[in-house]
C-alpha cells in the first residue's frame, strides 16, 4: 500500500476511509493509467457519500481533477463529508437534507460549471439537459439513470458511459457480493441457524443465483421460483428444487425476493405461509414484498429486535418481516452493503471511464463501458486476487 | 413409463435401448405435441447409431414418419442397427465402413427422396445442395455442420434448425453433462483419489466451468487457465485459482483441456510438468494436446491400463496421457458419453424442430431453435426433474 | 408457538427475549417432559444473562422451580435482568459489577439455600464446597468448570452433570454454530470479499473444521495447520491444503486460531506475514495470538473501524488484528454469538439434566449427560428441523 | 518414482501393476523404515490377488521376506498370479478354485511353516490355531476376521495387529474412497444425471456420510435414514434432510444402503417406491437389500445393461436393482474398488505392522495398529498429497 501525501492526510482523518482505502487496490492504481487526462478538469459528482466513494473522489483529485460533489438523498454520512472537506475537496450535503435542499445541492454542483459528470440516477444530467449547460460528458452509475438518459430526458449529445452495464458488475457485484451480503446479513440480523431452514429465492437472475448459492453453501435447503423457463432449467440442473409460485409459500420457511418485479410476494401468498416464516427483500425497490397488504392483514406488529418485526395476522398466524421489506443488504441494521473489493471494481471502471470521456473520441449518447477498460480492470482484479 | 406396442418390441429386442428409453421421458412425450405433423413424411437421417438415437428414431417413426437412416463414420453400433431393422426401420451401415462405403450410405439416404433431413455434420445437406435435391428442410445437430451451412456449402434455400445453438444445450449438456462425465471418467479410468491432486482446467467456457466445478466437488484443488480476461475474473470470483499458461505446467498434476483451440498443451509445456502428470483432453477435437509433439519427445510409450499410456521423455521424466488425447468422455475405455437425460433434452429439441419445419412458415436458411420450443422443452425437463 | 401466560408477559416486556423464545422450540417443549420434577425446588443460577438464558430461566420457573440467579462477570445485560425481575424472578447483578460485587452476588445465590445449582465455571460449586452447604446436585455448563470439579475443588459428593461433554454440543455448537459465526462475523466486521483470500485455520478440531468448512463455502482458499498427524490427514482428504506452522505465515492472508493452545501465532510468525494480513482468534481464551508480543513489535496501532486495528510494525509492514484477539464470535462489534437454535439445544440439555438430578438415583460426582437425554434432545431437534 | 530391479521386472510384465505401483508412493517407501526386520522371515499370505496387493507382496519380498501366498475365494486374478510367479514369488490359486481347492491352498501356505501371517478373514489363523503351528504373529485385514480371533477361534497367544481398526482406514477408505467409488460407479453404470434425483442413503456411519457427501456434491438431492438419534442429528446439521424409514420409500428415487445391518430395504419398502426407483447396496454383505424377497414379488426380471436389472413387480410397477444387490463399488460392471491411494495407505499399515510384530515386544492377542505407526503413515500421506 503506497499512499500519496494527500491521501495520507485523509487516512489519518477517518479510520473507515483508511480501511476502505487499504482494500481498494484497483482504484488506488488507476492514477498511473489516467495520467494527465483529468488534469485541470472539474468533475461534478452526485453519489452516496460513504468511505468507499471518498476513496474514489480522493483518487480523482490526486489525478489533478477539481471535485465538486454532493450526496444522494438520505444516505450522506456526515463524518465522510467532514473528512473530505478537511482534505480540501468541495463537498456538501447532509443526511437530513430534504428534497428541496438536496435539489439545491445538485444545482450548486451544476453552477460550478463542471467539465464532466459522475452521476448516480441521472439527476445531474437532468439539470444539464434542462439548462443546456455544455459538458464534455461523463458517467452514470445506475441502470435506472441510463433508462432516463435513453428515454424521458431526451437525447444527450455528449458521451455518457453507463457503469452498471458492464459484465464485470453482474459477475462480481450482483452475483457474488449481493449473494454474500444477503445471506451474511440474514445470519447476522436473525442469529438463526440456516440448517433445517427452507429458503425460497424468487428470481434466478444474477442476484438470485448468488443468494441461492450462498444460502445452500451455509447449509440451507434452497428452492427457486422463476417464471423464465430457461432460467428455471438452469436452477434445476444447478441442483436446486424449482417450485411454482403457488407451491412455494407452503414449502418454505424463509422467503427472499430478488426479481426486480413488483408484488412478488402478495398478501395472499403470505397468508399461506407457515407460522414464523421470515420475509426478506433483496431487490433494489421495496415493492417486491407487498408490505402495505401485509400491514392491512395484520392485527398487530411487534418489533423483536433491530430490523425484525413480527406481523400478527388476523388469522392467528404470525410472520416476520426483516428491514421493513427494504433492500436488505443496505437497509438492515448494521448492514455494510457490498464488499469493499466489489465496489473497488466498479469505481475503477468509473475513474477510467471518466478519463476516457475526457480524452475524447467517443460517440455521443449513453454507451457501455469500452471493452478494453472492462478487460483491463478484470485483469487487474484477477492479478490482485491471486497475489 | 407407458410404451406403445412398436416401442415395446424394440425394448424386448435390446436391453440397452430399453434402459435409455426408460430414462428418456421428454422424447417419449413429444409424440403428443407433434401430432400428425410428420405423418407420411420421409426423414433422411445421419447420426451416431447408439441406444439413445434409437429411441429418437423409434419416436419419429411412431409419429408416422418414414425413417431412412445411416450412422456416422466409425461409431455405428451393430446391435442397435439390428434392433432397429428388426423393428421395421430402414437403417444401414456398420462400424467398419470405410469413407467410401460411408459415402455410399449417405447417397442411399438421399436416393430415398427424403422430405426432411436430420443431419450431424451437414454431410447429407452437402449432398442435397450438390445434387439440387428438393427438400422441405430439416435439422443439423452440430455447430461445425452449421458453419458449413453458413459458409462453404453455399446458401441453402430451405429452413435448417441448428440444435446445438440452443441455450439449453449449453446449460444442460456442455456445463453439467460434460463436466460430470469428464470427472467421473477420470476417476473411473485412473482409479486415483482426487484429493491432493492439482487439476488445471484450460478454458472457462461452458465445458471448462463444468469440469472445474465437478473436479472441485469431489475434493480436487482446481486452477483455471483462461485468456479471456472477463471469464478469468469469473473463475476467480467463483473461487478458483487463476494461473497464467506459463505458471500452470509447474503447478498442476492433472491437466484437462477444454478450449476448442489447437495446441493448448504444447510439448514445451509438457516438458515443464512434474513426474506422473496426467493429461486429458475434453475438447471435441484431439488437437488440444500436441500428441505428435509429445510422441516425438518420448523415448518410450508404455500402456499401463486401458486408456492409460505413460510417455517416458528423453529427459528422464514421464507423463501419462489418457485416451490418446481424444475427447475423453467419449473415447475413454468404458465411456458412456453424456448422461441419458441430457441427450433426451437434445433429442426433444430435434423432434420438435423437425415437426416445426414440416409445418412450414419458417424463413429459409440455418437458424436457431425457435424460442417457444426451447421454453417448452425447458419446462418439460424441469417438471420431470421435480416429479 | 404456544406460550403460557407467564411467558407471554415476558415476551411483551422485551422484544429480544420474544425473538429468542420464538426460535427456541426445544427448551419451550421440555416442560412437558420435566413434569413436576422441579416443582418447589430452588435453583441457584450463575449464567450469562442475555435473551436466550432468560428463556431458559422462564421455562424452569414455569415448571415450578424457584429461581435465584446472578450473571457472569462483565456480561450481564441490564434490560434482560429488568425483564426477568418484572416477570417475578429473583435476578440480580449488572455489567458494571466488579469482582468483589460479583462475588457478593454469588454468595447471595448460595445464601438462598438452593436445592440445585445451574453453574457456569463452577463458581457456585466452589462456594458450596467451601461452606459445606447441602445441595441435591446440579449442572455445570463448561469444560473448565468440570475440570475444577474434578481437580482443585476436591471431591463433590452430589451428582453434577457436565453439559459441555455432550456429543451434541460438539456437533451442533462447536462445529457448525462456531464455524458459521466466525466466518459470518469476519464478513460482517471487515466487509471484505472472501474470494481470493487465503485463510489459514489453526487447529482441525470441531471448531477448526467448522471454520474451515464455512470459509471454503463462501469462496475462500483454505489451508489447515494441525500438529496432530491424524487430524491433519483428515483435513487433507477433506480437500484442504495442509501447511506446516513454518510455511503458513507466508502463504496466508487471513489467520484464524482455533486450537485452545497458547501462543499459536507468535510475534515471529506475524513478522513473516504479508502486508495487510488479518488476524482472528476463535478460541475461548485471548492468548492464542500473542497480542502483547505484537504490540511490542508495533510502532503504532490505529483503529480502522469497530473491532479493526492496524498494527504498524517497526519493519514498515502492517497487519490487522480483529477484536483485540479476543474470542471473535462473541467479542466483535455487533457479534451475537452462536445461533439461537444451537443454544436452544444446550439449554434443553440443561433443563432435562437438572430435572434428572432432582429425581435422584445418579451416582455422585461430575458426570456426562445421561445417554437417554442426549438421544431425546437429538431426536427432538431433528424433528423440529425437518418440520 | 525410483524402482528397484526386481520391481522393474514386475512392472515390465504387467501394465496394471505398473500403474498401481506408480501411485503407491507410501508402500513404496516403507522399505527404508522396515530395514532388515523382515529379512529371512517367511510370510504366509491370504489376500485378494490383484494389482495393488501385488505391489505389497513385491515390497515385502524386496525387504527380504520369503512370500508364500494364495488368494481369497473367487477373486484371484490370473494375470497377477502369473506376474508374481514370473517375478519369483511363491504364489498359487485361481479364480475358479472351489472351496475345497481353496482350502488346500490355505493348507499349502501353512505347510510352508511361515513365521508371520498376513491374513484376510482369519482363515490362515484358524488353521494355525487348529493345528497348533508356532508363529511369531501377524496381521489381519478385516473386522470380521478380528471378530473370529476374539471369539470363536479361541485365544491366540501371539500378537495379531488388526489393520481395519485403524482410524486412518475409517477416514480415508470408508468415508472418502467408498463414498467416491459408490457415486462414481452409479454415474458410470447407469449413465444417469444426478440432478433432480432424490438419493436416500441408509446409515450415516463413515461410509454413509461419504456417499451422502459425494451424491450431494454432484448435484443430487440427498436424504438420510439413520436410527441412531445422534448420528441423525449430525446428518441434519450437515444440511441433509433426515427421513424416517417409513417416509423414505415414497420420497426417494435412488436408494443406497450402507448400514451393515440385514434387511434394511425389505420387500414391503420396495413395494412403496415410485416406478423406476434404483436400488444400490454399498454395504459389505449382500443382505442389506432383501433381494430374495424382491425376486419373489417380481413377475419378471429383465437385464437392461451390465449390472442393471429391472424387476417387474406383480403390482405393475418396476424397480431397478444394480449389481444384484452386492457391494456395488466392487461388484458392479467395470468397478475398480477403492482408489489406489486409499489402498496404498492400508498396505503401508500392513507392511509396517508386520515388521513391528517381527521385531517383537508386543503383547499377545488381537490388537490395534500401534499409534506411532498410524501417525507415521498419516504424516507420510499428508506429505505426499501436498507435494
Percent strand of chain A: 15-25%
Give the strand order of the largest sheet of chain A, numbering strands 1, 2, ... along the chain: 9-8-7-10-11-14-13-12
Q: Tell me which oligomeric state these chains represent.
A: homotetramer
Largest two-chain interface: A-C, 43 and 43 residues
- Structure classification of chain A: alpha/beta
Largest sheet of chain A: 8 strands, mixed
Helix content of chain A: 40-55%
* Average of per-residue pLDDT values of chain A: 93
Q: How does the overall form of chain A come out from the CA principal axes?
A: globular
Topology, number of strands of chain A: 15
Number of helical runs of chain A?
17
Which value, in Å, is the CA radius of gyration of chain A? 22 Å
Terminal residue distance of chain A: 13 Å
Q: Give the low-confidence spans of chain A.
A: 1-6
How would you describe what is shown here?
The structure is a homotetramer of 387-residue chains. Chain A is an alpha/beta fold and 387 residues long. Chain A is built from 17 helices and 15 strands. In chain A, the strands form two sheets. The first copy, chain A, has an eight-stranded mixed beta sheet. In chain A, strands 3-2-1-4-5-6-15 form a seven-stranded parallel beta sheet, sandwiched between helices. In chain A, α3 (25-34) runs parallel beside α4 (51-62). The longest helix of chain A is centred in the middle third of the chain and has 24 residues, at 167-190. The first copy, chain A, is globular, with a radius of gyration of 22 Å. At the A-C interface, α2, α9, β12, α16 and α17 of A face α2, α9, β12, α16 and α17 of C.
Amino acid at each position: 500500500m503506497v499512499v500519496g501525501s494527500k491521501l495520507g492526510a485523509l487516512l489519518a482523518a477517518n479510520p473507515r476511509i483508511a480501511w476502505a482505502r487499504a482494500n481498494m487496490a484497483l482504484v488506488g492504481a488507476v492514477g498511473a493509467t489516467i495520467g494527465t487526462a483529468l488534469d485541470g478538469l472539474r468533475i461534478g459528482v452526485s453519489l452516496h457519500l460513504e468511505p468507499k466513494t471518498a476513496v474514489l473522489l480522493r483518487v480523482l483529485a490526486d489525478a489533478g481533477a477539481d471535485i465538486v460533489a454532493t450526496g444522494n438523498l438520505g444516505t450522506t454520512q456526515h463524518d465522510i463529508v467532514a473528512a473530505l472537506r478537511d482534505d480540501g475537496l468541495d463537498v456538501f450535503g447532509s443526511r437530513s437534507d430534504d428534497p428541496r435542499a438536496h435539489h439545491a445541492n445538485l444545482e450548486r454542483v451544476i453552477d460550478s460549471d463542471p467539465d464532466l459528470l459522475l452521476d448516480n440516477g441521472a439527476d445531474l444530467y437532468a439539470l444539464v439537459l434542462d439548462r443546456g449547460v455544455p459538458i464534455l460528458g461523463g458517467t452514470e452509475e445506475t441502470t435506472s439513470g441510463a433508462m432516463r438518459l435513453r428515454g424521458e430526458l431526451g437525447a444527450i449529445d455528449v458521451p455518457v458511459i453507463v457503469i452498471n452495464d458492464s459484465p464485470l458488475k453482474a459477475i462480481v457485484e450482483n452475483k457474488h457480493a449481493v449473494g454474500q451480503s444477503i445471506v451474511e446479513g440474514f445470519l447476522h440480523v436473525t442469529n438463526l441457524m440456516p440448517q433445517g431452514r427452507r429458503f425460497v429465492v424468487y428470481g434466478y437472475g444474477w442476484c438470485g443465483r448468488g443468494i441461492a448459492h450462498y444460502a445452500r453453501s451455509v447449509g440451507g435447503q434452497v428452492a427457486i421460483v422463476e417464471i423464465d423457463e430457461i432460467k428455471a432449467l438452469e436452477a434445476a440442473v444447478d441442483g436446486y428444487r424449482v417450485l411454482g409460485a403457488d407451491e412455494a409459500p407452503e414449502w418454505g420457511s424463509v422467503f427472499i425476493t430478488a426479481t426486480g418485479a413488483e408484488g412478488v410476494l402478495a398478501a395472499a401468498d403470505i397468508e399461506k405461509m407457515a407460522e414464523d416464516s421470515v420475509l426478506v427483500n433483496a431487490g433494489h425497490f421495496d415493492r417486491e414484498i407487498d408490505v402495505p397488504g401485509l400491514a392491512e392483514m395484520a392485527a398487530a406488529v411487534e418489533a423483536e429486535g433491530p430490523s425484525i418485526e413480527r406481523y400478527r395476522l388476523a388469522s392467528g398466524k404470525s410472520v416476520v418481516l426483516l428491514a421493513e421489506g427494504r433492500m436488505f443488504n443496505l437497509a438492515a441494521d448494521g448492514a455494510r452493503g457490498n464488499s469493499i473489493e466489489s465496489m473497488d471494481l466498479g469505481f475503477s471502471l468509473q475513474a477510467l471511464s471518466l478519463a476516457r470521456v475526457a480524452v475524447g473520441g467517443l460517440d455521443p449518447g449513453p454507451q457501455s463501458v469500452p471493452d478494453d477498460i472492462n478487460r483491463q480492470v478484470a485483469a487487474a482484479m484477477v492479478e490482485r486476487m491471486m497475489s
